[in-house]
Amino acid sequence: MTEDQQLLPSDPEPDDSYRPPVETMNFGQVERELRDIFGVAVMYLLVPIFLLAVGMTSAVSSRLLVRVLPGIAAVFVCYWVLLRAFVPMYDAAPEMAIRYSLFISRFTDGIMSTSHKRLAALSVRWEELRRW
Predict the structure, then answer these.
(1) Fewest CB within 10 A of the end CB: N or C in the chain?
(2) SS3 of 41, please?
(3) Are 58 and 70 in contact (CB under 8 A)?
(4) How many Å apart are CA 50 and CA 44, to the nearest integer?
(5) Which letter, b or e, does each residue of 55-80 get, where b requires 16 or more Cβ atoms within 10 Å of its Cβ?
(6) In the chain, where does DSSP find H-type helix?
(7) For residue 52, what are the CA distances in angstroms to 56, 59, 85, 122?
């Protein structure tokens, strides 16, 4: 007997249930969704920051706690900075932000519950609406 399985938080959700189709969205809706996706994509920078901080302290220390604490501190500080900086970064260079989001989406096979296919469609729609 099989039951319907619930989606895990990391699984992409179907786009049709709660999101409007990309083709019917206006410029403001596309811009807002792209900005939100970019905000999540920027947080993927925390992974290399953590690895860099842990790698640097691993060369100096042998105790696990002393190696990991600076990495955790760097992640919290950078999270706070990136949380406040992603909107000005998007406003300063939206094309670059969209390209970065597309790169992260392709690299990770989607950003959170947004598939790479939807993000690519949003970027094409953004280009179309921006030219009008």
Answers:
(1) N
(2) helix
(3) no
(4) 11
(5) eebeeeeeeeeebbebbeebbeebee
(6) 27-43, 46-58, 64-92, 94-108, 116-131
(7) 6, 11, 21, 33
Reading the block at residue 51, the tokens are 């690895």
Average pLDDT, the chain: 84
Residues 22 and 118: beta-carbon distance below 8 Å: yes
Contact 98, 38 (CB under 8 A): yes
pLDDT at 10: 55
Query: What pLDDT is recorded for position 59?
Result: 67
Is the pLDDT at 49 greater than 90? The verdict is no
Label residue 1 by pLDDT band (50, 70, 90).
very low
Phi and psi at 69, nearest 5°, equal -55, -45
Alpha-carbon Rg of the chain, whole angstroms? 18
Give the pLDDT mean for 84-100: 93
